[in-house]
Design brief:
Layout: E1 2-3, E2 12-28, H1 31-43, H2 48-71, E3 76-88, E4 91-105
Parallel strand pairs: 1-3
Antiparallel strand pairs: 2-4, 3-4
Length: about 110
């Protein structure tokens, strides 16, 4: 599956647009991570536990979007975008969406 944030794939042409596909996940912070993050906030620097949490959330949401595209018969997703939003105190949604298409080699 080709997944890009551009509107085209160099060397391919779109033969069929199959529609919008999306994936999401909602993740909550962990008390242990919050304590560590609070201490890190005092001295500065990357909060690795949150980086890992968001990396995993992006991967999961992207996999869900790709599964939806495969069900439609797509072999590519164009214009992929990510968004996040707070759902409640301590929890956030990561949302990814794009356009499922069928592409074939050629300009």
């Amino acid at each position: 599956m080709i997944v890009v944030n551009t509107e085209t794939v160099p060397g391919y042409r779109v033969v069929k647009v199959l529609g919008l596909v999306q994936g999401n996940t909602v993740r909550a912070k962990h008390l242990g991570r919050d304590i560590g993050a609070g201490l890190k906030n005092l001295v500065g620097g990357e909060i690795k536990s949150y980086t890992e949490l968001l990396t995993e959330a992006r991967r999961e949401a992207t996999e869900r979007m790709m599964a939806q595209a495969q069900q439609l018969g797509a072999n590519a997703i164009l214009g992929v975008r990510f968004a996040t939003s707070a759902v409640m105190a301590g929890a956030a949604e990561l949302y990814v969406y794009g356009t499922a298409v069928s592409v074939e080699p050629g300009a």
